[in-house]
Amino acid sequence: MANTYQWVFKTLEVMKEFDGLSDVVVAVHYSFISTSDQLNESGQPYSANAYGAVSLDAPSGSDEFVSFENLTKDQVKDWVLSKIDTTEEKLKELLDQRISNMINPPTELKIPASW
Q1: Residue 108 forms part of a structural domain
Q2: 21-55: per-residue pLDDT in tens?
Q3: Burial 10-34 (b: 16+ CB within 10 A, else e)
Q4: Is there a domain that residue 113 lies in?
Q5: Residue 42 carries which DSSP code?
Q6: Which terminus of the chain, N or C, has fewer Cβ atoms within 10 Å?
Q7: CA dihedral (69, 73, 74, 76) positive or negative
């Protein structure tokens, strides 16, 4: 099973003005998506995601501040990972396990035949 991964940043919440700076990012809404190369019974790839929102600390000065238009996805990803206190590898492992459980469910629903 080979999975591909993608970070998606749905929304960046900004303060219009803060301490003389403009468009300061204060929150990030994100998804980390894993897509399998295996298809389900409908012909669609298995997929799992981790999503959420994190609040960011305000920059401590203009030296630390990056203007909104100069932000990169990698920088925003690093902010998210630092706030959720995990690594990208751990997220991959989690999503890989979710997909594996979809393909080969570890549980099933049953009731005794005598009921």
Answers
A1: no
A2: 999 999 999 999 999 999 999 999 999 999 999 99
A3: eebeeeeeeeebeebbeebebebbb
A4: no
A5: T
A6: C
A7: positive
Residue whose pair of structure tokens reads 């998210």 in the numeric block: 80
Instruction: Give the C-alpha separation, 94 to 106, whole Å.
Output: 15
- Tell me whether residue 111 is in a domain: no
Q: Report how far residue 52's alpha carbon sits from residue 98's, in angstroms, rounded to the nearest whole number.
A: 17
Residue 40 lies in a domain: yes
Residues 6+ apart with CB under 8 A from 46: 35, 36, 38, 39, 40, 99, 102, 103
At 44 the three-state DSSP class reads coil
Helix (H, G, I), strand (E, B) or coil at 83: helix
**Domain extent at residue 20:** 3-103
- At 58-106, the pLDDT tens digits run 887 767 888 999 999 999 999 999 999 899 999 999 999 999 999 999 9
Number of domains in the chain: 1
